[in-house]
Design brief:
- The chain has about 300 residues and is of the alpha/beta class.
- The strands form three sheets. The protein has an eight-stranded parallel barrel with strand order 3-4-5-8-9-10-11-12, surrounded by five helices.
- Helices cover about 40% and strands about 15% of the residues.
- It starts with a strand and ends in a 6-residue tail after the last helix.
- Helix 8 packs across helix 9 and helix 8 packs antiparallel against helix 11.
- It binds NADP nicotinamide-adenine-dinucleotide phosphate.
Length: about 300
């Protein structure tokens, strides 16, 4: 497993991390199995959110981690706040100082730890008051409850606005990115064209992150649409892509999921790939991405096979 510096070299993290959104579906032994598999593979960052399983994912992780008996500082724990009442008709987004602080206190209780290594704002809140966010982050930093801060699903201007108020710059932005979800790079290849592909949907997020040393994390690396299902092995929807994945899987002698993750890792922005599998053999397969580097030509072949034309 390769390790990459996060932010301005604040932490060293495995280039593949474990997304714990579905850990709430496991019993404690199931969670022990997937966490110990992750640690054996060299994964050191575990991604949580207050909303995952309505808090149960964090609780299950903590119970399993206690059973494993490792020290707290062996892992980088990241959690998120902002989404209130996830998947209910009453859902809304909240960057208020009270919510940020309460959410962290509750995550710390569930995770049975004194501090989060990283806290992310899960989604942009259109009613955000950056002064309040800055106040909340300062309080959390001073009290030792959070070491570093970042965002998720934020565009360039939203990060720029926050950064102009924060005492310490954002370290991370977690974005949806995979072979079947490429708006962050597609617009950049279609500048000044009168086509759907030329529409800039994120205001230049990758470029802003690279300029300001904000690490990018790719969520849902194997799913198409908004968590609509797996594209790996889905020949009906993605025949050419799966053919190309199979061909490169034979060439590099790694599973197809490793090729799909290696496509993300090949980007020079050094994305961290957040794999959300709760099946140890699937996680091991994906981690094989860390040992290979596909060529530039192969990277473009995969991009085109996923249905993305070049201008
Ligand atoms: N910031 C955000 O807004 C946001 C949104 C969504 C997700 N996330 C983060 O991203 C993480 C990953 O998201 P995700 O779990 O939805 O996406 P994912 O890693 O792309 O997909 C994992 C799903 O694919 C299945 N799968 C089937 N075959 C697989 C294989 N060979 N290898 C790996 N997985 C395979 C897994 O089932 P098995 O468990 O049986 O392997 C699991 O259901 C989440 O846990 C969360 O931390 C963040």
């Amino acid at each position: 497993m390769k390790y990459i510096p996060l932010g301005s070299d604040i932490l060293s993290a495995s280039e593949i991390a474990l997304g714990c959104a579905r850990m709430s579906t496991l019993d404690i032994q199931g969670a022990v199995n997937i966490i110990s598999c992750a640690l054996d593979e060299g994964i050191n960052l575990f991604d949580h959110a207050d909303a995952y399983g309505n808090g149960l994912s964090e609780e299950t992780f903590a119970a399993a981690y206690k059973k494993l008996g490792y020290s707290r500082d062996k892992v980088v724990l990241q959690s998120k706040c902002t989404i209130r009442n996830l998947d209910l008709p009453t859902q809304y987004y909240d960057h208020s100082k009270n919510h940020i602080i309460n959410s962290v206190n509750e995550s710390l209780q569930r995770l049975k730890t004194d501090y989060l290594d990283i806290l992310l704002l899960h989604r942009p809140d259109p009613l955000t008051e950056p002064e309040e966010v800055a106040e909340a982050f300062d309080l959390l930093k001073r009290s030792g409850k959070v070491r570093y801060f970042g965002v998720s699903n934020h565009n360039r201007y939203q990060m720029q606005l926050l950064n102009s108020y924060l005492s310490e710059p954002l370290a991370v932005n977690q974005m949806q990115f995979n072979l079947t979800h490429t708006p962050m790079i597609t617009a950049g290849m279609n500048v000044n064209m009168v086509t759907d592909e030329s529409v800039m949907r994120d205001a230049g997020t990758i470029e802003y992150c690279r300029l300001h040393h904000i690490s990018l994390q790719a969520w849902a690396p194997f799913q198409y649409g908004l968590l609509r299902g797996n594209y790996l092995g889905n020949y009906e929807m993605y025949p050419e892509l799966n053919q190309k994945l199979d061909e490169l899987s034979d060439k590099y002698k790694v599973p197809v999921s490793a090729i799909a993750a290696a496509w993300i890792l090949r980007h020079p922005a050094h994305f961290q790939v957040l794999v959300g599998s709760m099946t140890p053999s699937h996680l091991k397969d994906a981690c094989k991405a860390s040992g290979i580097e596909i060529s530039k030509v192969e990277w473009f072949e995969l991009y085109k096979a996923a249905g993305n034309p070049l201008p």
